[in-house]
Design brief:
Number of strands: 16
Family: Belongs to the ROK (NagC/XylR) family.
Shape: globular
GO molecular function: kinase activity
Radius of gyration: 23 Å
Pfam family, one: ROK
Order of helices and strands: HHHEEEEEHEEEEHEHEEEHHHEHHEHEHH
Strand order of the largest sheet: 10-6-3-4-5-14
Helix content: 40-55%
InterPro entries: ATPase_NBD, ROK, WH-like_DNA-bd_sf, WH_DNA-bd_sf
Distance between the termini: 9 Å
Largest sheet: 6 strands, mixed
Bound molecules: zinc ion
Keywords: Kinase, Transferase
CATH class of the largest domain: Alpha Beta
Amino acid sequence: MNGGGQPASKQSMRRHNLALVLRQVAASESASRATVAARVGLTKATVSSLVEELRLAGLVIEHVPENQGRVGRPGGALALNPRGAAGVGVEVNVDYTAVCVADLTGAPRVRLTERADNRGRGAEETLHSAGRLAARACAAARRAGLAPVQVTLGVPGLVHDDRVLHAPNLDWRHVPAGDLLVRGLGRQRLAVSVDNEANLAAIGEFQARPPGAGASFLYVSGEIGIGAGLMVDGELFRGGGFAGEIGHVTVIPDGPECGCGARGCLERYAGQDALLEAAALDSVSATRLGSAPAVTATATRTGGGPGRHALQEAPTEGSAPVERLAALAAEGDDAAVRALAVAGRALGVALSGAVNLLDPPEVVIGGIYARLAPWLIPSLQVQLHERVTSGRWRSDRLRVSGLGTEAAVRGAAGAGVQAILRDPSAYIDLTSPVL
Ligand SMILES: [Zn+2]
């Protein structure tokens, strides 16, 4: 299976065609080798040999009808192998670290969450710990028959070339995050890439959309920081590399100072800490500072049968302070309701600017905003209705993400899967014995 020794053009042709065939298998339901050949415009013999390579590498399975003899005959129905290569998503946020392993179909199979205050803990310790959590998730995935291969790390900060240039809420500057995570992973041959967590959350939101849902939207992720991802026709718009820093859009120019050095940023009114402070809730004690990190784990082990998608869904756990804020608001507590109305208003002001500038068909709020939506949305909608002039604002253009705080880690795992689907030859060459 090793491509070594072949002329460059032949290798690049093989690489291109393997990806073409694998994507066709992913897009089709129960297509045979002959059907795939017809759809991609290659000969049946060529497709048959490519399918065989994908099958031997564990990326594709072939269901052969019982009356058809041995495995590998051209009439079998092809599908992505749910027990083969897997993408691993790791999210390091300010008050938790999460890991998700997704199989080739994109279904989440293992999820681990560790609640810990990562502020002031240091990048090295935080990323080593995240690497160890990812190694545990990979071990659980292997026991479930999966082969984790690609790790995507999401961080709430500015990321360039797998390095975190600045993550104000983690107090990280110029951190080689990919390298540090690899060290925590131990002796595992896993490729690692790093991205901004709101970008990955927008990708996660896109991947979880039902067929036929729009492919262009602005996703806004509420956490201790606030990030956004602009999805345009299914592709993330990155601008010069750092698009989406909506948390540092100015709401009130002479407002309170922000961790970024500017004043009156959206984050100072609608970020998790600002919300808790305004609701007179202690964010420090509520995040259980000083106690041992709580670990919640869900490992889903399933076979390849029809029940595979009946996943054991772990409840999307909000952090304790956010749950308390929601409970107080539900009881009608004045300070909680007022804090959420103020945050909704600030969000509405910032989002109106974004909508007037970009006119996205939809705005999706996620992260902690999904949990707090009932109390944020009224004042948020008022601002959008009053301020959006780029087209009539309809209330149904604002949606709440169904993924809550899981969007980023799900998107990170999905990004790994997409990388395998885009270039299966890299995976095959990595896993094949060197000849
Ligand atoms: Zn700021």
